[in-house]
Automatic annotation (TrEMBL):
Protein name stated in the entry: LAFE_0H11100g1_1
Pfam entry (one): Acetyltransf_10
A Gene Ontology cellular-component term: cytoplasm
Keywords: Acyltransferase, Transferase
Example of a GO MF term: aralkylamine N-acetyltransferase activity
InterPro entries in the cross-refs: Acyl_CoA_acyltransferase, GNAT_dom, SNAT-like
Residue stretches making up the N-acetyltransferase domain: 9-183
PROSITE patterns tied to this protein: GNAT (PS51186)
Native species: Lachancea fermentati
Lineage, opening ranks: Eukaryota, Fungi, Dikarya, Ascomycota, Saccharomycotina
Keyword presence, Hydrolase: no
Length: 195
């Protein structure tokens, strides 16, 4: 598998200057009704770039770096807690828009995309694992939530997410409601290092 991996790969937080490339990649990953708009992408990259992660290939000619190409991304925000403090917060139709609550302890992943020509090389697994590890150790929040199409539930389970049932909010939307969406949650636990 490693022989097919792109050379010169790296992961870094996304910034507003990446918004155009993120929009392009988003439109390659999702049908129009599921993808984030350019405005929503710009909002996320402005208010919480630390929750938005990009996988890049650096183009190198000899010693010279010619540029970089975005081949994968994760877009997240923190979503407001449930009204009832005993209930866990999950993604809603509203929180998929321009919503970020800095005080919340729940990070919502709204999008995971790998460009089609680089899929099935473990890159989404790599990007998600890096994202979870960084957020855990930076103590950014207590948990990550995501909504997944039913067929992708086993994929997220392998990365440590637990399925907790069907998402109640998105099924009210005629476009989203066509498929079954599952709420999934991954607790963030800081790794302890020996000093
Ligand atoms: C889902 C996605 C991010 C996976 O990226 P990837 O780099 O190919 O993933 P990995 O190589 O790390 O893992 C591959 C595994 O993902 C799962 N998977 C990917 N696409 C799948 C699909 N359409 N149905 C079911 N499982 C799927 C499989 O378990 C697959 O393992 P397999 O190759 O042994 O079958 C990528 O297919 C993508 O960008 N899709 C479009 C956007 C999307 O649907 N995003 C997820 C919802 S936010």
């Amino acid at each position: 598998m490693s022989s097919t991996l792109p050379l010169h790969m790296y992961i870094r937080p996304l910034i507003l200057e990446d918004a155009h490339d993120v929009s392009e990649l988003e439109s390659r990953g999702f049908p129009p009704e599921e993808r984030a708009s350019s405005e929503t992408i710009a909002f996320r990259l402005t208010v919480c770039p630390e929750l938005c992660s990009g996988l890049f290939i650096r183009e190198v000619e000899g010693q010279e770096v010619k540029g970089e190409t975005l081949i994968g991304h994760i877009l997240g925000t923190k979503i407001p807690g449930a009204n009832d403090s005993n209930r866990q917060a999950f993604i809603t139709l509203e929180s998929m828009g321009k919503v970020h609550d800095e005080a919340s302890s729940t990070v919502a992943i709204h999008s995971v995309v790998i460009s089609p020509e680089h899929q099935k090389k473990n890159l989404a697994t790599l990007l998600l694992t890096d994202y979870i590890q960084k957020l855990s150790n930076q103590e950014v929040g207590q948990r990550i939530v995501i909504i997944a199409h039913e067929p992708l539930v086993p994929f997220y389970e392998r990365i440590g997410f637990q399925a907790v049932g069907e998402n109640e909010s998105v099924k009210k939307d005629p476009a989203f409601g066509k498929a079954k969406w599952c709420d999934m949650v991954r607790e963030l636990v800081k790794e302890e290092y020996e000093s």
